[in-house]
Amino acid sequence: MAAPAAQKSYKAQRTHGTQPFHAAQRVEAAEPVPAVVTGSQLIYFSSASENTSRFVSKLGCEAARIPLLPKDAPLLATRPFVLVVPTYGGTGGEGSVPKQVIRFLNNPQNRQLIRGVIGAGNTNFGDNYCMAGDIIAAKCGIPHLYRFELMGTPEDVTRVNQGLDTFWTRLSQTQK
Ligand SMILES: Cc1cc2nc3c(=O)[nH]c(=O)nc-3n(C[C@H](O)[C@H](O)[C@H](O)COP(=O)(O)O)c2cc1C
Questions:
Q1: In a domain, 2, yes or no
Q2: CATH number at residue 125
């Protein structure tokens, strides 16, 4: 399915939550490249350091990756999904949500299908630990389901796998 030639801002198109992204986080880019369509229920972003990618591989389930480069084809979700997102923050949490993730959420279809977020980060960042997950949860009106550090521990893997099973089961019972 081709993406629209141009996307309005997250602020203009959001359907969940009440708070727009900070102006500096908005992405107004046109998306000329046809989208890659995914029915995966787990979608993640990971930068070149690939910590989040390693964590997601350990979950052993199908997952789709948000592209790293602006020239890459954008990702378009077709089913409800949980987003796994690392934080890349500045002072006071500004810029915490990677711009690639903002671009992804600026697509109204993606934003409508997000059901939960899992935050990745590093506790060395103190109060800003996994801040991107907090921001997305607040703005999209969805739960911040879990937080893990770097590439996660074996316990994180077990807890996320069990938690996602429970989450999707409950959701299928309540959203018919
Ligand atoms: C420049 C920079 C800023 C970061 N800011 C935060 C932060 O504000 N909060 C946090 O929890 N982690 C922060 N981190 C840690 C990353 O979220 C963490 O390393 C994560 O595992 C990166 O995932 P990735 O390798 O999949 O991109 C930062 C890392 C870098 C390099």
A1: no
A2: 3.40.50.360
The alpha carbon of 12 and the centre of ligand 1 are apart by a number of angstroms equal to 28
Q: Is residue 43 a contact partner of residue 63, using CB atoms and an 8 Å limit?
A: yes
Nearest ligand 1 atom to the CA of 47 is 27
Reported residue count of the chain is 176
Total-model pTM: 0.85
What is d(CA 90, CA 96) in angstroms, rounded to the nearest whole number?
A: 7
Domain contains 105: yes
Distance 56 CA to ligand 1 centre (A): 16
Q: Which of 80, 82, 88 is closest to 143 using CA atoms?
A: 82
What is the extent of the structural domain holding 38? 10-174
Per-residue pLDDT of the chain (176 residues; tens, 9 = 90+): 344 433 433 333 333 443 444 444 455 555 578 999 999 999 999 999 999 999 999 999 999 999 999 999 999 999 999 999 999 997 766 789 999 999 999 999 999 999 999 999 999 999 999 999 999 999 999 999 999 999 999 999 999 999 999 999 999 998 75
Number of domains in the chain: 1
